[in-house]
Amino acid sequence: MGKIIFRYGAMGSSKSAHLLMTGYNFEERGKTVVYAKSSIDTRDGEYITTRSGIPPKKSLTIPENSNLLILFSNLQNQSVIMIDECQFLSEDDINQLNKLSIEKDLVIICYGLRTDSDSNLFLGSKRLFEIADVIEEIKSCCSRCARKATMNLYLGAKKDVVLIGDSGYLPICRECYFK
Q1: Considering 64, 85, 137, 175, which one is annotated as catalytic?
Q2: Is the pLDDT of residue 162 over 80?
Q3: Distance separating alpha carbons of residues 133 and 39, to the nearest angstrom
Q4: Does domain 3-139 sit in CATH 3.40.50.300?
Q5: How many CB atoms neighbour CB 178 within 10 A?
Q6: Minimal CA–CA distance to 9: which of 127, 110, 118, 81?
Q7: Is 137 annotated as catalytic?
Q8: What is the model's pTM?
Q9: What percent of the chain has pLDDT over 90?
Q10: In this predicted model, what pLDDT tens digit does every residue of 12-55 receive, in sequence order?
Q11: What DSSP line would sit under 87-147, residue for residue?
């Protein structure tokens, strides 16, 4: 049975490390794992990397406005798709992943942020909250008070709501964010 899992966390919660470890576990059990990420995330080219030292994995790039049914058409039934930075996907992308999961009996595990640095839901994350079979929070600590971080605070001047990478961001609890 196909399944969509959404795992989200604040900046610095080791989402990419968790993704790579989970993919490794599936591979050890003989599953075909495909790694992918949004084309908006240009940090590490076509690789998913982490600061933890886990070896990077080559990934498919999901272009904006793409047909994901075609992009993933060569997958066999019961494969696993691991998607990093899923918050950058569109609502239509998530709907296509949903269809793909059902039609090809795929497990699709999406990792990303819940909200941007203005505390607004990303469109990809919003749609995943609406349709995912399983929703799991990857917990981390507030940089200021050590409570659970749920927000992403950007410390510098910015022109856009979306800035790639974690430089200048702090994982922070709701109370510290609004202070």
Answers
A1: 85
A2: no
A3: 25
A4: yes
A5: 9
A6: 110
A7: no
A8: 0.91
A9: 73
A10: 899 999 999 999 999 999 999 999 999 998 777 788 988 888 98
A11: GGS-HHHHHHHHHHHHHHT-EEEEEE-SB-TTSPBPHHHHHHHHH-SEEEE---B-TTT-S
